[in-house]
Specification:
- This protein has 87 residues and is mostly helical.
- Helices cover 55% and strands 0% of the residues.
- α1 runs parallel beside α3 and α2 runs antiparallel to α3.
- The chain is elongated, with a radius of gyration of 20 Å.
- The N and C termini lie far apart (73 Å).
Length: 87
């Protein structure tokens, strides 16, 4: 009979700083009704928000901040309607 040794419980790794920043940005976009706003207002809002995010998530490098902005721009665009093709 073999006895199984119990191993100490490992602390679950939380989301990465990038994942946290992305999720927070998406929440801000939804909460501030940025989706469907005029493109110039979206750009202005995103400029200000990205400055805030850079201060809040100082561990992100410039390439990650660029990727975060790209994701935010895509997320803020309204969904495209697929138009039915008439036969």
């Amino acid at each position: 009979m073999s006895t199984k040794k119990s191993q100490p419980a490992r602390a679950a790794a939380g989301p990465s700083p990038f994942a946290q920043a992305r999720d927070e940005l998406f929440q801000h976009i939804i909460g501030c009704d940025v989706v469907g706003a005029d493109p110039e207002h979206q750009k202005e809002w995103l400029d200000e928000t990205m400055r805030y995010m850079a201060e809040r998530f100082h561990e992100l490098d410039s390439s990650q901040m660029t990727e975060l902005r790209t994701l935010g721009e895509r997320f803020a665009k309204p969904a495209k309607r697929s138009e039915a093709v008439s036969a």
